[in-house]
Amino acid sequence: MPTAVALTAALALVLSGCGAAATEPGREAAPRASASPGAEGGRDGVLHAAVRRLAAQGDAPGAAVLIRREGGGTRYLASGVADVRTGRRIHRNDHFRAGSLTKTVIAAVTLRLAAQGRLGLGDTVEEHLPGLVRGQGNDGRTITIRQLLNQTSGLFDYTADPALARQLSAAAGRTRTPASLVRTAVAHPPDFAPGAGWRYSNTNYVLLGMVVQRVTGRSYATEARRDVLAPLRLHGTSFPGTRTDLPDPHGRAYTRDGGAGDGGARRDVTDLNPSSAGAAGELISTLGDLTRLLPGLLRGKVVPRAELRQMRNTSASDGRYGMGLFPVRLACGVTLWGHNGEINGSYALAVTAPDGRHSLAYRLNSTAASGLTAETSLLEAEFCPRR
Fold this sequence. Notes:
The protein is α+β, with helices and mostly antiparallel strands. The protein has eleven helices and twelve strands.
């Protein structure tokens, strides 16, 4: 499935879209043993092996996964280290950057406002942000809120702009405003006419963050804390804004100069001004919070049922993406719902069964492209029915 592109070569900032690898047609599901203590230990062995492969494939010092099952408690597995200098292990409650999982929260906030009648999904961008989306064939009068949510606006993804990459390379810690990111995007022609195709673009969710602020008079972060994070008790999740450090406890985040696998030096990139990600990817979270976010969402605890159906409607994308959620179809016939995210030095995926009773989140402390085969193995080992 498609994956978003790097924001800058300097920051290696990727706001990853739907990139789970567990959709390979015809791939055999990993066998599941019978439900006995010995079999359960065997399954954990498969999971441990998958976690080790995730770290290796992602060129990451460490990897960790948390599995939550209603009535079955939680399981935590980890491999490698959180800090290559000290050898500190990855802790279950460590904070890390969650990248484009931000979009799941922003979509929920936007759909809550729609349910309250404070905006309409058919509203145009121009109605809320007059004059902002203009030029090079872009026209906010023809783009709707629905098209921003489901990635059918056609707007160029600002993260693909080479001039922005050069600017951030020269001043990596500089604060970027949402309006400046949108101006970068609309300096390029659209990829297609609004509604005429589907393409993942971080510009869409930066605009949604601006719409939320215009409609409510408060920042998208404030709205998200009140309407999503607080009701779901996601106490380890935050919107850092321009804050460069991570809350304690946390490990370190790493990337390779020139990209993973090229033999370049491993670089510590833990401190980061995430304003260039904004409403498309600035979220900080924990594994525990991510395994509660999606179940709470799919059970209707923050978004009304009608709007939740919209989140899971993938008809505009040929089954690839809904609104801040995408389906992960396993070879055994099981479909999960979730999102992934990648930002400088961190990759994460969070998924849940449709009823919210079985969820998984994992993370790598590196900048690593999605589509890892070990990701498929991990999900199939945990979610495919026993044979």
